[in-house]
Design a protein that fits this description.
The protein has eight helices and no strands. The chain has a single domain, classed as Alpha Horseshoe (Serine Threonine Protein Phosphatase 5, Tetratricopeptide repeat). The chain is mostly helical. The radius of gyration is 21 Å and the shape is globular.
């Protein structure tokens, strides 16, 4: 293979690896690959109690971006932020309960977390979260719905 062919082959492999998210692109300072450096930073901040980082770490585990996909870990990190009042984490945790991903399927807890999230949302976001909450509520018995609303009130009273 001549030098032009070899350079083209190397470039093609590099592009394929980058497209697959495998390329070891380094941060500007030459440290660890960028996605892992970002994940490590977010994980460090989340462990220190940063709410937005805990929510972001939950999303990373849910989607498998920068860390192995793990719904149980996603639920754990979402719960940490949701229990401290983060509306996005409350929404995401509610959806995990609705689908039974990383937690047992539980419409009562799903509706409770979505209800808490909807109470903080505004505008189109509020409409969307409310529709999702109502969709879950439509699957519930009146007793389950009452239990969910009691849990949401109790959460507010304790926070």
């Amino acid at each position: 293979m001549n030098n032009i062919g070899r350079g083209t082959a190397v470039a093609a492999v590099a592009l394929a690896l980058a497209a697959a998210g495998i390329a070891g692109a380094r941060a500007r300072d030459g440290s660890a690959p960028a996605p892992y450096a970002s994940a490590a930073r977010i994980m460090r901040l989340a462990k220190q109690g940063d709410l937005k980082s805990a929510t972001e770490l939950g999303r990373m585990y849910q989607t498998g971006r920068g860390v192995p996909q793990d719904y149980t870990e996603a639920a754990k990190w979402y719960y940490r932020a949701a229990d401290r009042g983060d509306a996005r984490a409350q929404y995401e945790l509610g959806m995990l309960y609705n689908k039974g991903q990383g937690v047992r399927r539980d419409y009562v807890l799903a509706e409770m977390w979505l209800n808490l999230s909807a109470s903080q949302a505004v505008g189109d976001s509020r409409d969307f979260v409310t529709r999702m909450r109502d969709s879950i509520a439509s699957k519930m018995t009146p007793g389950q719905l009452a239990a969910s609303q009691r849990l949401a009130r109790a959460w507010y009273q304790s926070h």
